[in-house]
Structures are given as C-alpha cells and as structure tokens.
Specification:
alpha+beta, endopeptidase fold (from Nostoc punctiforme)
Length: about 150
C-alpha cells in the first residue's frame, strides 16, 4: 500500500508509535510519560488522559509547536482554523457535554456521512485509529507555519 505523497511528518511519526499503550496498575509506560513531558503534565504517569500530550509530542518531534497543554480543547486556539478537514490535520472533539471543558484531540484520516476516523493517542488506551461520531467535531486545525 502506498502512502500519500503529502503525508505530514507528524502523522508519519504518529503511525510509527502505533500500539504504544497504557500499562496495568502499578506500572507506567515510559513512552507515555515522555509524551506528557511535552505538556503541563510533565512527570505524570500513563493513567491520566494523554491524547493532547501525544499530539504535542508528535508535533515537537517534527519541528512544530503544539499547545503545551494537556487539555484537548486547547487545540481550538492553536494554529489556524480549517473550514473542512485535511489529511493529518488536528481534530478537536467534544466529550460528554459539548459545552463542557472535556474533549478529545487526534489526527484526521477520513470521514463518511456520520463517522470520522482519527489516529492518535489514548484511543482505547493506546496509539491507534478509532472512529467517532462526526457530530462531535468542534474544529479542524492546521499549524500556522505549514
């Protein structure tokens, strides 16, 4: 299978992390601790929400600035807004109540009429692809410098 020519570097790096997962009770995955070091959760273990930490790590490792925040919705103020998704863009989702502070953030792969397919961290406790309701999308973002 050939990869798209215009695959963003941060997405290629994210794919290379596929399968990194949270460890069981009493243990902590050092790779996730490394992701957290790129946010205000530096020093935290793998038991907290780490989707934003993963994106910050991927972007930093490929020369882009992230938000530095572990809050998924912090990405709504990052980069520039996109009217429609672009392969590899940052997607911010609501979680529970759309008006709450809770959310999820990941990289865009594709979508259909009802579902969006994203690749990111802390998706069922690991780095993987997962689908979400398209209706939960709050925004699409792209780095300012790209």
């Amino acid at each position: 299978m050939s990869e798209p020519i215009d695959e963003p570097a941060w997405l290629s790096l994210a794919f290379a992390e596929r399968g990194v997962r949270r460890f069981g009770p009493g243990e902590s995955n050092p790779r996730i601790v490394e992701y957290n070091a790129h946010t205000n959760l530096a020093g935290y273990d793998d038991k907290i929400s780490w989707c934003s930490s993963f994106l910050n790590w991927c972007l930093a490792k490929t020369g882009q600035r992230g938000t530095g925040s572990a809050l998924a919705r912090s990405w709504l103020e990052w980069g520039r807004a996109l009217d429609s998704p672009v392969y590899g863009c940052v997607v911010v989702l609501s979680r529970d109540d759309p008006a709450s502070w809770k959310g999820h953030v990941s990289f865009y792969l594709r979508h259909d009429a009802d579902t969006i397919y994203l690749f990111g961290g802390n998706q069922l406790g690991e780095v993987r692809e997962l689908d979400y309701p398209l209706a939960s999308v709050l925004g699409y973002r792209w780095p300012e410098s790209v």
